[in-house]
Amino acid sequence: MKLIALFSVFLASVAVIDRAVGDELSPEELTFFESKIRPVLIKECYGCHSKQSGNARGGLTLDTKERMEIGGTTGPAIAPGSIEDSLLFNAIAYQDFEMPPSGKLSDEVIADFRRWIEMGAPDPRSNPVETVQSSITQQQIADARSTFWAYQTPRETTVPIPEDQTWASNEIDQFIRAQQETQQLSPSQDATASETLRRLTFDLVGLPPTLEQIRFFEERWERDPQGAILHVVDRLLESKHFGERWGRHWLDVARYGESSGRAVNMTYPEAWRYRDYVIESFNDDKPFDRFVLEQLAGDLLPVKTDEQFSQNLIATTFLAIGSKNVNENNRVQFAADLVDEQIDATTRVFLGTSVACARCHDHKFDPIPQTDYYALAGIFQSTETFFGNPQSEYGSFSDATDKQKSTLLILPIDDPHPFARTYSVDELQGFREDMEDERRQMIASRTNGQAASKNSNRDRIAFLKRMSELSGRLASVDESGKPKTFCMGVQDSLEANDARLLVRGEIDQPAAEIPRGFPQVLTEQQPSFQGDSSGRLELARWIASSENPLTARVMVNRIWMHLFGAGIVTSMEDFGSTGQAPSHPALLDYLSIRFVQSGWSVKTLVREIVSSRAYRQSSAYRQDYHEVDPENQYLWRANARRLDAEAIRDAMLCVSGELKTEAPEASVVAMVGYTRVVGGQVIPSRGLVETLSKQASIFGDRFPGQGRPFIQQQSAFAGVRGMGQLRGAGRFRAAAEGRQVIEKITNLLSAEDETYRSVYLPVVRDAEPRSLEVFDFVDASVISGKRESSNTANQSLYLMNNEFVEARSIAFAARISAKGQTLSEQVDEAVLLAYGRRPTPSEKKLLIEFVREFSRSDSDESWDSAMPLLCQSLLASAEFLYLD
Amino acid sequence: MYTRRELLQQASAGFGYLAFAGLTQAADGNGKKQSVDNQAGETLNPLAAKEPHFPARAKRVIFLCMGGGPSHVDSFDYKPELLRDHGQPGRYGGRLLKSPWNFRQRGESGLWISDLFPEVSSMADDLTLIRSMHCDQPVHSGALTQMHTGTAQFIRPSFGAWSLYGLGTENSSLPGFVSLNPLPGGSANLGSAFLPAVYGGTQIGRATRGGGNFGVRNRGSDETVRDIRNKSMTRGQQRMQLDLIQSLNREKVLRDRYQPGVEGMIESFELAFKMQDAIPELMNVSDETQQTLSLYGIDGGPSEEFGKQCLLARRFAEAGVRFIEVSHGGWDQHTNLTVDHGTRAEACDRAIAGLLKDLKQRDMLSETLVIWGGEFGRTPSAQGVDGRNHNNKGYTTWMAGGGVKGGFSYGATDEHGYEAIEDKMHIHDWHATILHLLGLDHERLTYRYAGRDFRLTDVHGVVADKIIA
Fold first, then answer.
1. Phi and psi angles of residue A422, each rounded to the nearest 5 degrees, phi first
2. Average pLDDT value for residue range A239-244
3. Is the Cβ of A46 closer than 8 Å to some Cβ of chain B?
4. Considering the domain boundaries, does residue B23 fall inside one?
């Protein structure tokens, strides 16, 4: 132990000497710092602001010159040469801040600091600027660019002619058949009519076939299977449900979520606009290259109408919607993490390439040097991101939790779903008065705060919360009280700057500036940017170009995966050297070229794939083939797949006849507004209380607290999580009413009573509705190209016991018994609805026996009690949950 | 434990299971456990118990997670110099604050532990104190996440999930990783992240800041596990219904001949059905003797609540659950240290000691690794007059049973307790050591995701061999 202690003392002294020698300060400057500044920093400041003590109050550490200049939450602590911009001086002079809190420093010391800052804040504690040597050579990059398959633009190939000329029905089949022949494999027989139809409806619109569709399809299939398929496919492609299905696939990769996630989970009330934009884009068959452009640089595209402007801006929500640690103290760190998230999303979603790996060091496996990361970082650093809450002339108020505030973008269109956000001019005046009132009270509480120190911090947070909400309300409408329309998104910053490479990705270790640009391995030609353009538009154009080797391939592969259950490249977001090579490289290239030639039409590609014979193979098992190709790489059969969470929930609603096919108003989260989510529940704002009170007619005029000032009204909800922080002692007079509202608030995010399509359910990070989360819904914080398909007891418990499932079963039973059919007919119809086919004889025997036996045990002569259980059994069974 | 086959056979009525029996040979071979390294193999039941990399010292983990940052210099890290230098300026400002609690040597080993934990002190000879902990995160949420997943920067699997992934579980009626009353806002702390969902922790009871009651979570019901109870059927009726579901599922397996997903579903239904009884039964402690209850302090005293949770932890352990986490929050004393730290300790001291004693008397301690610790410790210097700030540079956790030494102190902080200086144990090292005790090599326990093999310890982690008995 002694040895170690000695050793560390030795190291420390070496370090000190090293610093002193290593910098170009004059001896006078050095003496000044060492005698006047350093001792004060150590004695007075390091306790709360130093890496050594492990404390970074307000995100601020003062250990190095760089850290002082980065500063904390509020801004740079030291701006060399400028007293005004140096918040540290502001604080020690007891201006806006008061530091150290234990007592003001002597005038003499303050004067020393003033002098030191005016001298240019000479500071020997500077991190030496390191030169980072890349381990990746230009030659390696060039080699990869010219040899690695994914970095070559897709190649035109002649469609192979397989020996077996009888099977293929389009070019896709020729590729697949020819490759099977090299392995002495042959395709499976065609799936049955019912299997094919069920596959088509779930794959294209995420719903089971209706009885009418089944009847029509089977009839047509008898005469002309291919004709039947094409007919149904065209209908399904025209359905608005297509966008709801395929839009959701995109939302998976776009890591769509309606809150910031992480420790302090703040809602994104405007996120739904992006969701609807995505759904519409797929329904309109928006060319995919245009779709890419809009999401990455919609704000920079020329427009003709306000609607178009708005759509383009909403599209850029893509860059703003990632999960964020809004609790991060340090704004520079926060900004760096935000940019990192944007780089990660952009490169993995569109390019199937992970550049974010190179934040701290060169990419370990792919030829992506660290400089490539910072070339992209410059583009995103020159972009401003909007994700928070609009603020009024009173500004924004930061409480202890959501430290990183942001505002929103205003759209020049009327909000189709303004909720309760229309105020009279009088009301607005009331808000302003409340605001002044809060401000006065806060100041009052601060001045006599010493006495009541125990509660002062909590009070202050409560004040700030209320003021923040008031400010947000004032900002959400124009002068006349009419609601403004907002969206999340991005804008170019006023000036564009290159980023400096950060050694090991650490914000206080900046090295050389890196010119903005694109990953070198993906392009020979680095772009040049005009004037103060961030380069984001150029980046978007480059990604959305037919010349880009990856964009079309990555999207084609995604579409293929959704239809076949596995990608041609199985590693959806990794087309690099650690990813999987394509099972059918020529086919992937062929389809990518076709995709571009069709005007990047997703619907055309979907149509082409589902009209292949490969798509409509049976999923039947073949043991000998399984031994040769267990992964079914050669597509000798269809892959049986478990339905995803949305399809399961939607199918239950559809089968029970309860599915509401209209989209709901915006989103639950839009109604909730900007607030924090804790433990899966929202902390209700006044706006939410009002909206709910309007909805819950039960309250009517008797709604508690109506007409009373804001603060007292909120105290009515003291029982709701988070409301305890609000002042006031009032509680609900009528307990039943209180419970109703509380229950409503408690269950808002689970949305268990809603019967609209799952894509419209609220997606608050870490508080996803159980109906989705239980069946491997995406982790909304990560880019997910492919859903998990797990089997858990949790799912079984859900299917056996959850009230949502029970309610659907009861409605399902009521639906099939409504026609007064015999038991046998009812069982037939139930199975037809649930499975898309008639029951097998043994299934039918099981089902009928169950009803008989159950009725006997329940001494129920009719089978009223048995039918809902039978229906639930169907909904819980594998045949319902799987797509064969 | 049932094999998958027995389970299917048991649940089948005239089921032609043998139709695909041949296929399963490949899966579970000749009755041997799967190897932990068989990630991509034909794992029919991903939760089946697996052989570890090398003989395990601990079969399971009970992790007592102390949220908020309990003070090491007031509990397990004896600093006579802090007493001596009380009131002197601290290294980073503020004044050093001596502990309000006296330290004494305990047991035969003579470990120094304060009077904050009188009951736990009595078990000193079973503890390994790790007095050189450090992590990278100075704030609660980040440090808690790092303690559970190794990083606060990315969303990664919890170490409970990694343990379950590595070892599977031994009870087919219960989940393999449970978290009792997890701290709020920490879903990542029991999440599986990119690991298959089946390895994620099952939350028992609701998230509470102070570690309070099992209570309301779902629609005003008192469910401790979501959807654990059926409200409209008797168990017999439900069994009839389940038989129908399982018959339909077996029809499908027969038709499809080979369908691992559906076979997994059949198993999951049986587990779920059993859980409906097993969980409430396990949570019903009426079969425990008065003696046992009072061992845990379940006698109306201050440790009643946490005592119940510790007792449940033992019951889960007994039942073969692989990883059990129990949370006890509220250790964040920036002010009012003397009273509030005292209250927090009083609410868990007897419960924890009771758990250790109970495990010992049941001969379970040797194969159960009990871990106690918070996300960081607190500063030796005062904040205000009676408080301490966060300190992630040096703090103490301890382990007991499961192959660690008893009455042993590992590592050290500097003279006042600011910073770990000797045998430093970073969270990565801590994770590596825990996995090692479970028979898992932290460098070999990998999962391939997004083209990379991920580890709990990333590229770090050194096993602290010295603490292993």
1. -100, 125
2. 98
3. yes
4. no
Quick one: residue B311, left, alpha or beta (phi over 0 = left, psi -120 to 50 = alpha)? alpha
Is the minimum CB–CB distance between A4 and chain B shorter than 8 Å? yes
Q: What is the pLDDT of residue A713?
A: 37
Per the domain annotation, does B276 fall within a domain?
A: no
Q: Considering only CA atoms, give the Rg of chain A.
A: 32
ipTM: 0.84
Across A191-199, average pLDDT: 97
Cβ within 8 Å of B, A 649-688 = 678-679
d(C-alpha A757, C-alpha A749), whole Å = 15
Partner B contacted by A879 (CB < 8 A): yes
Query: Do the chains contact at A840 and B276, CB–CB below 8 Å?
Result: no
Report d(CA A580, CA B451) in Å as an integer: 8
Per the CB < 8 A criterion, the answer to whether A572 and A324 are in contact is no
Q: H helices within A497-616, ranges in order? A: 536-543, 551-564, 585-597, 602-610
Task: Express each pLDDT in A139-164 by its tens digit.
Answer: 999 999 999 999 999 999 899 999 99
Q: Has residue B38 been placed in a domain?
A: no
State residue A861's pLDDT score: 59
How do strand B50-51 and strand B34-35 relate by DSSP bridges?
A: parallel
User: Which of B220, B241, B273 lies nearest to residue A873, judging by beta carbons?
Assistant: B241
- The per-residue pLDDT for range A340-392, each reduced to its tens digit, is 999 999 999 999 998 988 888 888 778 999 999 999 999 999 999 999 888 78
Assess whether pLDDT exceeds 80 at residue B210. Answer: no
End-to-end CA distance of chain B: 30
Tokens 């069982």 locate to: A827
Whether chain B has a CB inside 8 Å of the CB on A773: the answer is no
Query: A-chain residues within 8 Å CB-CB of B197?
Result: 776, 788, 790, 792
Domain of B437, CATH number, reads: 3.40.720.10
Q: Which residue of B has its CA nearest to A869?
A: B241
Contacts of A495 (CB under 8 A, 6+ apart): A382, A532
Q: A46 to chain B: nearest residue by CA?
A: B92
CA-based nearest distance A28→chain B, Å? 26
Do A688 and A682 meet the contact criterion of CB atoms below 8 Å apart?
Answer: yes
Query: Within an 8 Å CB–CB cutoff, is residue A800 touching chain B?
Result: yes
